[in-house]
């Protein structure tokens, strides 16, 4: 709809007439439905996926390597499918319809997987004591299981890139309270995400492993059903942004026309002479001219042969684009270098979910002087706990305090927040290396307390020493990951926000693949080195601390790279005249972000 200036509306509210009904932004009033839906959805999905590897090896009698490959393929496909889901959302269906369909698909997927545990004919018979008595799944059983996986992939493709943007759509981006609401929403989104992870890794995993797989997988399915109900209960109150056609066509048009017109001379005053026309039906905010990527300006450079329609639009957008289109493409291109820095940063988080668990396995995990041992994988909860505790503190105490000093809605800029997270990722790796060096030294110089099968001796160092690195990793996510998601939402054009949201998950997939590549390189390089293999099965015989220092060094280089990118970066809507210092600047008052 056409929105007049707030001051004009206050002076003469009856004079404002529009063709479309006024948008009723309910903000936090609608959040119980959205955040409640997200919480139960995450509890359902994570409650199943967090223990799926154990399920495949114990119930479906799969070998570890087979189960691991299935999980890796599933996780990679799930993260990359968000690009397709985001494209379909922004192009055809809109966020509301996409989320509704995807939530139902997720519930169906969880239900199918639960049935494989509840119905005996849908999984192989339980293995006997001898290995040769194990029977693998039949083709029909595997087909039923993979159907559940497929439905979960469909659900994730729609939910992951859309739910953040859909929640932020409920706030008015043109009011101060709306802007602050959007900032807080990103924080609380990650709060619910980590809360769901903590519950899943403790209560739900315990039920699955110690009570019953049928009950343990039934709980997530029920939670997902509740998520579906909550989502549709708020249907009449949501702000539903409609799809506006494929946004990628505009991007391709700019690139094609810029190449066709590469021989044209760039105009002396591009902001005044470039062809500019913004359709009244566009949901995108009008962007100011920026002097980066000047070669793209040629796509909007007028020449005598160009034809203009009576309404002011280009007669052929494949021959002449608008300055608005060019600036939208610049927004997308500018984000990519920042995205690359975030991929390197997330490698640190990947290590805390893998090698840090192996560190815990070969450490003293006894709770005090009792015989009870904390499961090695449960130490990851400290990462989530630090994130869960810090986010409300940051949102309610730190941000208001910084806002008084800086005058910025978020207290600090998005890039400053991401920069702090990247710096903390380096500190996390250094602390991890120091702790591993201590654990290994104690294991080699002092009596051990047992042996881990197929691993090695257990160091007498308490696993509590691992808590600081998990806490730092949680703070890294609080700054880098939350800032990253907010950055994509605000810096992408409005009609591409779902695609922007999918970048976060593609980055996570990229971090996992890059981490695997780095580990393979370290294996091959150190296998014949004088120091021996850094990453053997027995950590006491390796040098995991050297690997951590290597990741830390990579993080230092990444931090320097990020600072250069942040210094160069220009926020969406900021013109050359209003930009002072990129890293310390904030979004202008008139930018609808």
UniProtKB/TrEMBL annotation:
GO terms for molecular function: transmembrane transporter activity. It is found in: Membrane. It is a multi-pass membrane protein. GO terms for cellular component: membrane. SUPFAM superfamilies: MFS general substrate transporter. The chain crosses the membrane at residues 99-119, 139-166, 186-207, 213-233, 372-394, 414-435, 503-526, 546-566. InterPro entries: MFS_trans_sf, POT_fam. Keywords: Membrane, Transmembrane, Transmembrane helix. The keyword Transmembrane applies. Belongs to the major facilitator superfamily. Proton-dependent oligopeptide transporter (POT/PTR) (TC 2.A.17) family. This is Nitrate transporter. It comes from Quercus lobata (Valley oak). The lineage of its organism: Eukaryota, Viridiplantae, Streptophyta, Embryophyta, Tracheophyta. The gene is LOC115962741.
């Amino acid at each position: 709809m056409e929105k007049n200036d707030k001051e004009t509306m206050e002076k003469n509210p009856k004079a404002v007439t529009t063709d479309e009904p006024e948008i009723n932004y309910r903000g936090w009033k609608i959040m119980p439905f959205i955040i409640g839906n997200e919480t139960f959805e995450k509890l359902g999905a994570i409650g199943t996926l967090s223990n799926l590897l154990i399920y495949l090896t114990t119930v479906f009698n799969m070998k570890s390597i087979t189960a691991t490959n299935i999980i890796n393929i599933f996780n990679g496909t799930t993260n990359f499918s968000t690009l397709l889901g985001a494209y379909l959302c922004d192009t055809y269906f809109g966020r509301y319809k996409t989320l509704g369909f995807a939530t139902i698909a997720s519930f169906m997927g969880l239900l199918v997987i639960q049935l494989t545990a509840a119905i005996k004919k849908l999984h192989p018979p339980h293995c006997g004591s001898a290995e040769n008595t194990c029977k693998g799944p039949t083709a029909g059983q595997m087909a039923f299981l993979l159907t559940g996986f497929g439905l979960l992939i469909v659900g994730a493709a729609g939910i992951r890139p859309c739910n953040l943007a859909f929640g932020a759509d409920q706030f008015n981006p043109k009011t101060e309270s709306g802007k602050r609401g959007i900032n807080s929403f990103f924080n609380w989104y990650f709060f619910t995400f980590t809360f769901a992870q903590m519950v899943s890794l403790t209560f739900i995993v315990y039920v699955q492993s110690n009570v019953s797989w049928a009950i343990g997988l039934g709980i997530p399915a029920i939670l997902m059903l509740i998520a579906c109900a909550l989502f549709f209960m708020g249907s009449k109150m949501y702000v539903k942004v409609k799809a506006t056609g494929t946004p990628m066509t505009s991007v391709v048009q700019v690139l094609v026309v810029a190449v066709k017109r590469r021989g044209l001379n760039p105009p002396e005053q591009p902001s005044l002479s470039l062809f500019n026309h913004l359709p009244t039906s566009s949901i995108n905010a009008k962007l100011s001219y920026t002097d980066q990527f000047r070669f793209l300006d040629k796509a909007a450079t007028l020449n005598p042969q160009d034809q203009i329609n009576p309404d002011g639009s280009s007669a052929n957008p494949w021959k002449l684009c608008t300055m608005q289109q060019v600036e939208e493409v610049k927004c997308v291109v500018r984000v990519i270098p920042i995205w690359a820095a975030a991929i390197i940063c997330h490698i640190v988080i990947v290590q805390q979910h893998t090698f840090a668990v192996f560190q815990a396995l070969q450490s003293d995990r006894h709770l005090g002087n009792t015989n009870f041992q904390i499961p090695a994988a449960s130490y990851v909860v400290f990462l989530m706990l630090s994130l869960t505790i810090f986010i409300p503190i940051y949102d309610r105490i730190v941000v208001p305090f910084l806002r008084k000093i800086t005058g910025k809605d978020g207290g600090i800029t998005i890039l400053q927040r991401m920069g702090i997270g990247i710096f903390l990722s380096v500190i996390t790796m250094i602390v991890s290396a120091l702790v591993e060096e201590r654990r290994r030294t104690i294991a080699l110089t002092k009596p051990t307390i047992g042996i881990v099968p197929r691993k090695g001796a257990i160091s007498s160092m308490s696993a509590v020493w691992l808590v600081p690195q998990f806490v730092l990793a949680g703070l890294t996510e609080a700054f880098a990951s939350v800032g990253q998601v907010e950055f994509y939402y605000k810096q992408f054009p409005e009609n591409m926000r779902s695609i922007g949201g999918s970048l976060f998950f593609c980055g996570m997939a990229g971090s996992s693949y890059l981490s695997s590549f780095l580990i393979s390189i370290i294996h091959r390089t150190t296998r014949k080195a004088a120091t021996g293999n850094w990453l053997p099965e027995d950590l006491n015989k390796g040098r995991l601390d050297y690997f951590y220092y290597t990741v830390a060094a990579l993080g230092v280089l990444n931090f320097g790279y990020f600072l250069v990118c942040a210094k160069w970066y220009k926020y969406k809507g900021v013109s050359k005249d209003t930009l002072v210092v990129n890293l310390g600047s904030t979004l202008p008052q008139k930018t609808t972000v």
